[in-house]
Amino acid sequence: MRLLVWSGFYWPYIGGPEVNGVKLFSALRHRGYEVAVVTSHSELDLPDYDTFEGVPIHRIPLLSTIRNRDPAAFLAARRRAAKLKSSFAPDVIHVNLTDPSGLFHLLTTAAYPAPFMTVAHSPFKPAGVDDTLRVRMLKEANWVVAVSKAVLEDVAALAPEISDRSSVIYNGMKAPALAPTPRPLDPPRLLCLGRIIGAKGFDVALAALAGLSPRFPEARLTIAGDGPALLDLEAQARDLGVADAVDFVGSVSPNRVPELMNSATLVVVPSRREGFSLVAVEAALMARPVVASRVGGLAEIVADGETGLLVSKDDPVALGDAIASLLENTEMADGMGEAARRRVQERFSFVQQIDAYDALYRKLLEEAGRARNA
Asked: Which label site among 63, 115, 277, 299 has the fewest CB atoms less than 10 Å from its CB?
């Protein structure tokens, strides 16, 4: 089967959809799929053609032409996208609904008609805000996948007609080769990991740390990642008087995440919006309890009171109290970490994810064949 993946961001960009996508499409290739990726250069100076883990990557300036509103560049990108689609002749097209680049897929459907499915990775804008492109993508897709029940509810509210052609496929992860180590307790080490943007709520974690300092003066917080909010976070840490207790370590490659998790006492995910959370799964695989916001797919990963604790978003006091309860009850926290590891291995395995996408692509191909022969 020839699978064409349409995604505004792909390797070497590192984010939840990108990291999971690289693993998913490489695994499908090993199952006999012929996979090609159409993506954008975005901000990096990247070659137009590349390969990674055996998967060809075709970069077209999709996002920049939309941002720059350059008609000539837009038409040139559209022609390149149509030519690639026609020459590759995909059986199925997989569109990541994470950015506006899907517009070029919609504008080139005549170049090579093929069934397409789209994946919603995160909640959309608040209800009542017009998002024409995404709604159109939902309505025209042969199938809609959401990475959590929360995201599916969100997209179904925008396009109720997808109810009979949509499903949830959770992101999955392999258990790393590195075994979990005992959690460090002296000093306690908290970890936030991800792209440093407002939606991740790392500013709430800093405020919680400031409130915890009188009770746990030795506690340290590691913030791993990079992004536009980094300078603001550094300034906030200084203003709160906790700069000496915070380590900003920059971006961490996916293969180093298990080692980073092993260095943590517990993992904090204070997101304001979250469709899924690979970080919560990665923490659980290393038997680390998670304190997280009760938003989006996080409540489907973290079983409150069993594998971690959930609190209201934007509430540093509640976040700090939850962290303190796990720091004070080490036996309970250890049990939560072990329960989290068992839970994610049962419910969020990588093999389950591959099997689900494999079955869906074959279903779409079979339905397309029946429609042509009708």
From this structure: 299
Cα 368 versus chain centre, distance = 30
Domain layout of the chain by residue ranges? 2-172+349-373, 189-347
Identical topology for domains 2-172+349-373 and 189-347 = yes
Torsion of CA 52, 58, 84, 27, to 10 degrees: 30
Give exposure, 87-106, as e/b (b: 16+ Cβ within 10 Å).
ebebbbbbbbbbbebbbbbe
Q: How far is CA 257 from CA 221, 248, 261, 279, 297, in A?
A: 16, 15, 6, 9, 21
The architecture of the domain spanning 2-172+349-373 is: 3-Layer(aba) Sandwich (3.40)
Give dist(CA 193, CA 251) in Å, integer. Answer: 9
Tokens of 65: 């032409």
Distances in Å between the Cα of 303 and the Cα atoms of 120, 306, 325, 331 are 23, 5, 16, 17
pLDDT tens-digit profile, the chain (374 residues): 999 999 988 999 877 888 899 999 999 999 999 999 999 998 888 999 999 999 999 999 988 888 888 899 999 999 999 999 999 999 999 999 888 888 899 999 999 999 999 999 987 665 444 468 888 999 999 999 999 999 999 999 989 999 999 999 999 999 999 999 999 999 999 999 999 999 999 999 999 999 999 999 999 999 999 999 999 999 999 999 999 999 999 999 889 999 999 999 999 999 999 999 999 999 999 999 999 999 999 999 999 999 999 999 999 999 999 999 999 999 999 999 999 999 999 999 999 999 999 999 999 999 988 887 77
Class of domain 189-347: alpha beta
Structure token pair of residue 328: 């004070």
Paired with 56 in beta bridges are 51
How far apart, in whole angstroms, are the C-alpha atoms of residue 134 and residue 124?
Answer: 9
Range list of H helices, the chain: 16-30, 62-68, 71-88, 102-107, 132-140, 149-158, 202-212, 230-240, 257-262, 278-285, 298-301, 316-328, 330-347, 350-373
Q: Are strands 143-146 and 166-168 parallel, antiparallel or unpaired?
A: parallel
Q: Cα separation of 146 and 141, whole Å? A: 13
